[in-house]
Specification:
Length: about 100
């Protein structure tokens, strides 16, 4: 009987989407942390809690939905900008 030989296949290409999204999530974390220079402590605490929830969601999307991580990270940055802008305009947050 003849044995079949296994042929080595090249590895599948690794998607950049989850890695890029997590890099953006890390950048968003620095923005949220730097909010302490402008926003009151309670707002920074709330922002960091929201970021933590988004980070956990991003981790759960790593394999099933890798492109959503990038969208979520961009949404996190937009949320940070809108929150600080609204806080400065409506609540008088300033340096």
């Amino acid at each position: 009987m003849l044995e079949r030989r296994r042929v080595a296949r090249p590895p599948k290409a690794v998607s950049f989407w989850p890695y890029g999204g997590m890099c953006l999530m890390a950048a968003a974390f620095f923005l949220y942390g730097a909010s302490a220079l402008v926003a009151p402590w309670w707002a920074v605490t709330l922002l960091l809690f929201v970021w933590l929830l988004m980070f956990v969601k991003a981790c759960s999307w790593w394999t099933p939905h890798p492109r959503r991580i990038t969208v979520l990270a961009i949404a996190a940055m937009v949320l940070w900008f809108v929150t600080l802008f609204a806080g400065a305009a409506l609540l008088g947050w300033s340096t």
